[in-house]
Fold each of these.
Amino acid sequence: MVPLGYYLVLSAILFACGVAGFLIKRNIITIFMSIELMLNAVNLSFVAFAAHWHMLSGQLFVFFVMVVAAAESAVGLAIIIAVFRTRATLDVDRVDLLKL
Amino acid sequence: MNETSFHLWLIPALPLAGAALNGLFGRSFSRKIVTALALFASGAAFAWAALSAFRFTALAEDAIPHIENYATWFRVGDFSVPFAFQLDQLSLVMILVVTGVGFLIHIYSVGYMAHEGGYYRYFAYLNLFMFFMLTLVLANNYLVMFVGWEGVGLASYLLIGFFFQRDSAASAGKKAFIVNRIGDFGFLIALFLMVQHFGTVTFTEVFQQVSLRPVETAGAGLLTTIGILLMTGACGKSAQLPLYVWLPDAMEGPTPVSALIHAATMVTAGVYMVARSNPIFFRSPSALTVVAIIGTLTAFFAATIGITQTDIKRVLAYSTISQLGYMFMACGVAAFSAGIFHLMTHAFFKALLFLGAGSVIHALSGEQDMRQMGGLHKHIPWTFWTMFAATLAIAGIPGFSGFFSKDEILWNAYASPWGGHWIYWFMGFLTALMTSFYMFRLLFLTFYGKYRGTLSTGAKHGGHSQIHESPKIMTIPLAILAVLAVIGGYVGIPATLGGTNRFEHFLEPMFKAPPLPAGIVEHANHALELPLMACTTGAALLGLFLAWLLYVSRPQLPQRIAEAAGGVYRLVFNKYYIDELYRAVLVNPLITGSTKLLWHGIDSAGIDGAIDGSARGAQQVSNEVRQMQSGNLRSYAGWIAIGAVAVIIFMIVMGGK
């Protein structure tokens, strides 16, 4: 059986990839994907812990996360489309009106 | 309230009602209604005071002082202050003087103020003054007295600044108020000491406790402290050294106000207060000495200034200060009844002199400089004759009121077992000489010789004179006061002249002296009284002669003397530069200190600096922090990441412990 540590390290690597992608990339779609990556990294650690401790609550949480992620992608994609329609770009650095 | 209530409250309440009605609604009243209200208020107060006087004489001796308690003002623990009035010989004399002279001056004012604006305001203030002054003299405790004390100060301030469009009048009012405040400070502390040590401020109770204490011959004690503090208050209100400076400036007010407040009544409040507190002063020879020295010096000092002044009202102002000095001299040798006697006669003749001066000023359409007067006795005979009587009275010519009262003061100054000394007498003697001189100088400069002003006298321009006698409503009060100024002294003819000194005997129960302290013997030699009297009379006549010589016989002499005296003359003419000295030593440092240190230093730099600084600091910090709000999504994400890392590190570190 694969030890718990392996899963957690993989999860951490995936999460770090997500964070890095979020910070580095300018394309909104890529950033969006990075968010999904972070969510799934967390999901991975949830299920790993659930299997390790033999508790269902971790798996239950994964469903919650997936549901939220699905809802979020629906809303997020809608926003992206709206942004693209008005500004004709997907570059986040050019979507910076929300400041003083 | 007891059965034989005199309803003393009516006496101050009537003027208060007059002041309230005229003050609140006077603007819409016609002049006739304002006049009627004001005259009724003061006249009825006088009538009620006179009625009370008659009923007072019928009182049994043990019913004096007659106290009417209306309410408890406030009570704190054991300490309570009643709202009560007290009628005894002393307050009776005072209310009669205040209401009597006050009423006459009200009448006079109707004529004098006829052409002035703010008519209703004037009478409202005048009535208000009467109210406070009567509260002051009727009070049966120091706190109610203090209410009146402050109230007359307020009324005085309002009336000095009556012509408030004139800057000098407004600042004279402020000066009077502020200088008085210095004195009031002493009065207040004396009050606090009484509360602390006696637990009461009621006259009878305070004096009861005071009478149990020994005379403070060796060193200063509580009574000396209280006495000197009370005297500080009296110095402010009664314009004694060193706080007299406000009174000459107070002449900015309308002349009847100068007569009523700054000559006849308010300025004598200090004398009244010291006389009222006589049990305290009797038990502190040091405090008595302070009073006597201040009074003597003031009398002498102000008289010298009076000699050189050219403004008719200023001469009278310095004369008032000097005469008040006499009263304090009397109080300082424990001759309180002589002081009150002089207070009364002075009220008559000085009010008359001021009203006469007002009539002169009125006749000359506002001219106050005596160098622009002269030869007026033909034009304004009523004013002349009444002022002549008053001048004889103040100069101490035998037979007139001032002679009797001044002589009694001087005799006591010499002979009183309570610190009488020939130096007081001698200073008083010199002052009497100067008084006679400057008063006759005033009279001669104003009424004799040739007219030196610019108004038409009728001689050249075909009969019509621009100089006119005042209307009857002004001359009648003058005449009444002249009668009083002449005969007012006959209530107190001294025993040496075959009289019985009824005035002194009347007041005697008020001023019961404790036994003389050991080591002091009465050195009064009554054989000396007549020669001393002759001396002062001689001084008065000499003053008269000198004034006649200098201002009637040889009018060019004064100029030459002034030039010969040179620096001395300029020093006196400029009032010893006291105002300048105060300005340099007290006022300017105060203003500079307040401006530089308190305003610029503490207020602007310190307090405002702290507040503005913290505001500016917050703004700067915010400005820096604001930069994080870039609108750049990825930078937000970066901050969140950094925050998350920080939280994780924190958890790791703290979790390890």
Note: Chain A has a mean pLDDT of 90.
Amino acid sequence: MNWTLAVPELVLVLCGLATLTIGVLGDKAKSHAGLATWLSIASLLFAGVLVLLSPSGIGLGGVFINDAFARFMKIVAIGGAILAMAVGFDSNRRAGLRHFEFPVLMVFSTAGMMVMASSANLMTLYIGLELQSFALYVLCAIDRDRLGSSEAGLKYFVLGSLASGLLLYGLSLVYGFSGSLDYAAIATALHAGAISPGLLVGMVFVVVGLVFKLSAVPFHMWTPDVYEGAPASVTAFLAGAPKVAAFALLIRVLLGPLGALAHQWQLLIEIVAVCSMVLGSLAAIAQTDIKRLMAYSSIGHMGYALMGIAAGNEAGTTATLVYLFTYVVMNAGAFACIVAMRRRGEAQTDIAALAGLGRRDPALAMGMAIFMFSMAGVPPLAGFFGKLLVFVAAVKSGLWVLAGVGIVTSVIGAFYYLRVVRVMYFDTPAEAFDARARSTSAVALVSGLATAGFVLIWAPVMAAAALAARSLLAGTVG
Amino acid sequence: MIVTAFFYIFAAILVASAGMVVAARNPVHAVLFLILAFFNAAGLFLIAGAEFLAMILVIVYVGAVAVLFLFVVMMLDIRFDQMREGLQRYAPIGAAVGLVLFAELVATLAGLKIAPVEAAAPAASGLTNSAELGLVIYTRYIFLFQACGIVLLVAMIGAIVLTLRERVSSRKQDIAVQHARHPADTLVMADPVAGSGMDGQILRAPGWTPALDKPAPARLETTS
């Protein structure tokens, strides 16, 4: 019962409970959202430090594992959550969302992600996933007086429950045919004996359930509607950290217990990756709403990141991890810019609203341009390195088709990212936006610097990702 | 032998009633079929020797969840026949996809024996089902058990955030305010002349404030 492994999660949950208590017992007449947000950011930072200090090993009755991989994923997820929370600071205030529960739910969701990253047992996987998802369902619907928000929450909830059902069915089949819930025992059972078809069916259902959370094609239908309907601060969160956690699960399950089935799931992941990249780039062309554009963009990005898993080796996993890091950073920055699009108190999501931003607000336009160029994969920026790594990993594993499709779709994708830049710099200026809040500018600045100067932080990120990938793959063998 | 027979009876009714949940035209019937399905699943659990799970299934799902479903179905005025209008249009596509999936499942599982491995019987410890569960849940799986608690807490926070509205017009009882009131704050003794009444005038106590006397809901005003 080595409970010290889970100290970051325990501390984060306790901090969340304390924040909740302060909000509930506080003066009813005032809004505690600001205080709760500060407390939540502080507790996330504290949990992040604890993650870095946490020891490695398997504990808590064999259901919880902490290794370099878990630490990397947790740090990226916590970073994404902090950035999203900072984005929400001002946008929630202006949108009239004064619930102190907002940051508290984000904290619980992040705790769920950390449990997901540390799962060593199918039950841990499911409970972590549900903790993360439940909080997200509520967050999507939190602007309850707006029809779009309620619709987004309900859609996400109904489809998410369906995906959970599929996942549970798959987990039950895997359990039934391998005889254990522990990853290590499942891996041993699979390596020892013949692989039964029931196990394969279970594996397919597990992949379907997890891919739904990634919003990869063909389980992406909810993404544009939910991204568009949910409050901007929630979308910023939804598009970043949860994807990292879902990837953590997918990588851990596929390369760990189901590693023996690599020949079976490789094709599955390849198909999902190709479909996501193609749909993400083609469907985004026709979008006029920037949040929907970001939804299709995230579908495409998930396709690229899946490419590394399809490679199924250490280089591929490293590539996926670096890709996720760059994705979270530029995604948070892009949403900080989107949140800043407010005119006379009304949130603007039309791409046309950006017209002439280059002359009205050069700093914001500069930031947005950096994120768009980075997402398109233009060389010195962060997005390029992620794409380069996954392409190299795919080619080295002989997945030429995957790499080829990826290159073609990035060219198509560049078209719609650059269209946003064109609107900002070459169209007739529209009316000016409201003054930006300092918190929003800070997020955009931090993400912008990390995206533009990724060359400078390249070495430590790459080293951490490689260490994480090595620890994960060594765990499956030994 | 008799156990096997009962297994198939329960399983057949379970599958049939689960199908009827989807197919029933009347939503109330669908919920009743759902309850039947729960009962049969409980029967299957009993056969498997998991009497605790069987009872929990009946108490929680039949006793609480299904009854809640019935309430919701009856209280919400949903025209289910309207919701089914698209069914005819999409039925062929749905059926085709379902058939393909089913064929694939059959093809995959064709080589499969119904019970491939005889599961090793767990060592009998002489403890009851619930005692065994308690021993595992509160020791080995304490982390997961507590995590489930947090999941429920999140669901509860969600329900409150999404539904609670502080209504100004609601008539709440504030006991502290009631205790702090004196008769002199609210009562005025009047001595009208016999047969004349108060002539419709309203006497106010010196300590009377409009804040203490909240406006009555509109519904009551219209009836009076």
Note: The mean pLDDT of chain A is 89.
Amino acid sequence: MSALAATRPDSWELPLFLHVLGAMVLVGALVLAFTSLAGAGRAGSGTALRVGYRALLLASIPAWIVMRVAAQWLADEENVADLDAAWINLGYSTSESSLVFLIAATVCAGIAARRVRAEKGEGSGLALAASILIGIVLLAYAVTIWAMATKPT
Amino acid sequence: MYDTLLFLHLLAAFLVVITAVTYSAVALGADTGGRSLTVANICWDVGGLGTLILGIWLALDVDGYEVWDGWILGAIVVWAFATESGRRARAEFESGEGAGRASLMHWLRTGLVILLLVLMVWKPGA
């Protein structure tokens, strides 16, 4: 594995860069959304709800798209798209199922922020729901990062 | 050993980017509050040190890499500049003075973090 790391073909490098960058920004935005929404859930803070909602909508989802498109590009370059390997299957299943969680968390955070703005309630239940969804996604991503780095068979 | 080191090095790099993303939100005008900035600062402290130590350990462990390879030395220099610009951004955001300069330092750090990722992927000269 260590020798392979030193001899990667040039054509893999741009998709690998975009895949890793997209994944890093995705995780960064999710942590920002999580800390904002978890705090907002307790304090009923409209500002924190808006930050959490925008982190999901404007950063997490675009970063997910970059990560996923680059992953497919990289898999095609490496000819592993159809390979039945545990780490690839985990990558596909985690990325695709996490999009559903991301969309659900974004909708929850958006409705919570709108409710607070319209003074129709605290939105703390929805903020908590969004936080839980994001927490689940972050745990799944931690396992996926381990699988991508170690490539277990 | 290699797999574990690579995983931890990558995890540390993710922590560094959590800091860059949070400070980017602040630099763009978001009121993220103290909790998010505290988490971001801890992520930089742990991730910054982790990337450096584990990166050097990886360079010693991997056949074909040496710590004195140009791209590794370059990455260490870029890491040092990123750490210093991050320290200045943090101090100026916390003091509440010179928001423009704090943002400038933050964007400089973010650019350097992206440059680190470029060096790690392309490994020029390797």
Note: Residues 2-122 of chain B form one domain.
